[in-house]
Write a structure and sequence with these properties.
- The protein has helices spanning 2-24, 93-109, 164-169, 175-182, and strands spanning 27-34, 37-44, 49-55, 57-62, 81-86, 125-130, 135-145, 154-160, 189-191, 196-197, 202-206.
- It is an alpha+beta fold.
- The relative contact order is 0.23.
- It has an eight-stranded mixed beta sheet with strand order 10-1-2-7-5-4-8-11, with no helix packed on it. A three-stranded mixed beta sheet has the order 6-3-9.
């Protein structure tokens, strides 16, 4: 009987520790839409403060096309373009300055100093500081565009969150300066690249929603 009890205690401890460890690594994200304003809701269920980047433009893909986004160099290829740009003055000023400084230094290093200061509102990334067990709401303005000639069209659009975990490990143009930022000494906070997306955002959009 004692042996069975001991085994059950060990199993309970392993399960409990596993669950606690999993919870300690949960940095999650879900969405809320109100008219043409989108809100990203970040929740930090870890045991430490975190610092993380968020994209200045949210990309949406049309289910009728294979592309990740309807916004960018292929805009004319899509019947409707859907994207969202972050509202101003929401990031952590202190850490945003550090990221921007690293970005500018990187441009100089690769011989692109002429591009310093040319960033548009939707370019790049914003940096946020979120305390342990806290929540943070980040707001974006949704844009729905249809170029002339206007014709009837409707589809489902999926919001595709920027894959920071893959970018930091891969050979992307922005990967190096983000990697350098991620390796800074954040004292009591921890850099976290990718939240768990709890609620993928899907929008049913037609020509009636565009250009408003």
């Amino acid at each position: 009987m004692k042996k069975v009890t001991l085994i059950l205690l060990i199993i309970f401890c392993l399960f409990s520790c596993k669950q606690e460890s999993k919870k300690d690594n949960i940095f999650s994200l879900n969405y809320n839409k109100n008219g043409n304003e989108l809100t990203l809701i970040f929740e930090n269920n870890t045991s430490h403060d975190i610092i993380f980047p968020a994209p200045n433009t949210l990309e949406f893909g049309d289910k009728n096309f294979k592309y990740f986004s309807t916004q960018g160099g292929k805009e004319k290829d899509f019947p409707i373009n859907v994207y969202a740009i972050i509202e101003n003055n929401q990031s952590s000023r202190f850490y945003q300055k550090k990221l921007d400084s690293i970005y500018n230094a990187f441009l100089i290093e690769i011989g692109n100093a002429d591009f310093i200061g040319d960033k548009k509102p939707g370019d790049g990334n914003s940096v946020f500081y979120l305390k342990k067990m806290g929540k943070l709401k980040v707001k974006y303005n949704l844009t729905i565009k249809q170029s002339s000639p206007i014709h009837k069209y409707s589809s489902k659009f999926k919001q595709n969150y920027y894959p920071y975990d893959k970018v930091l490990k891969g050979n992307y143009p922005e990967a190096e300066y983000l990697r350098r930022f991620s390796k800074l000494n954040f004292v009591n906070a921890k850099f976290v690249a990718q939240p768990t997306i709890e609620d993928s955002l899907f929008l049913n959009i037609s020509h009636n929603d565009a250009n408003k």
